[in-house]
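Limitations

Structures in this collection are predictions, not experimental determinations, and the ligand pose is part of the prediction. Treat each record accordingly. The example that follows, with pyridoxal-5'-phosphate as the small molecule, is included so readers can see exactly what is and is not provided: the inputs are given verbatim, and the output is the predicted complex.
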Amino acid sequence: MSSNSSKLIAELDARIAELDAQSLRRRLRVSESPCAPHVQVDGRPMLAFCSNDYLGLAAHPRIIAALQEGAALYGAGSGASHLISGHSRAHALLEERLAAFMAPQIEQARALYFSTGYMANLAILGAFGGTDVDLFSEELNHASLIDGARLSRAQVKVYAHGDVGQLATLLSESKASKKLVVTDSVFSMDGDLAPLQALLALCERHDAWLVVDDAHGFGVLGAHGRGVLEHLDLRSPNLIYMGTLGKAAGVSGAFVAAHASAIEWMVQRARPYIYTTASPPAIAHALQTSLDIIEGPEGMARRAQLQTLIAHWRESMRPQQWQVIASDTAIQPVVIGDNAKAMKVAAALYEQGLWVPAIRPPTVPAGTARLRVTLSAAHEKADVAKLIGAILELERTYA
Ligand SMILES: *Cc1c(COP(=O)(O)O)cnc(C)c1O
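Predicted complex:
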């Protein structure tokens, strides 16, 4: 081993030690059972409030069976990228199904399936970016949108959280020939909703695209689970909608739904679509069953159960010092503030068998470290009551 490489390692180790000292070091925990409220973690039984499996579909027997059936029908791997030979009948059927599902919200809807939401966001912003584009980005957007904005080569202008007035000013001042407004629908660390009606009205007035990342809304919001667009009754050719399929849909991947011409442009230009191997067709096959469930009576019952749990949380979770953020979604943060304190509280909960992640900077702004509680239709009311009791008790010790 050369002394050069050990110098490199020593430098990294020093940086990692620095993270440790600031309570910013992240650690992997090994989950040993299917995703569900009751899981085995590092050998211990835990009640989890961490996952984005909002409808409890990740281990649904019908979806597991569909995944097995998909493997039997299509094999394990796709073998190539979509534009070479990897675009299977399963992918095509899923895209047709997603386009039909989203058709009430998007004119001349077509859908494109991606391996992950992260890639879908890079793909949208890459395909619709360019040096002649002004990109208006909401300050609390997900990291994948921030990275996509960097890759887009557009002029990026950040507007404050929910500040429609500031966005209106920025749009009026813009001299760019093409404009793109980019926002999360449900903010992933806060759980609140973007003012999408107002944003869409502005975009229509300024001939701007509105990119909506509905990672936490698809499947959960709207009577049929079509997400935030159905929830707010929005429909427009200016919309570029991104929904993920690894959260409420319980499997993996994501899709973009937009006007057929916008999707055709992405097929031609979106690098994260073109230069990657298509995901296993069995996943696309399983997702069709997931959509059957989301759209049907079982999906409706699961959304109703989730709403019941959210209402229970909002009524009963009334801390004295710590803050809850007004959220009607499955994401229910408890803001503690200090990094070390948030870590201690999460560790104390973990000791009691309650698994809740502490979220620290840079994922959230400095001074707003928090517990990020996520509720799922698979939780029972008693599970939620137990967590509320434990957090309020710990507040008396740590606040
Ligand atoms: C999870 C998430 C993504 C990324 O989706 P993946 O399918 O997990 O890659 C994108 N945007 C938001 C807001 C998310 O929460």
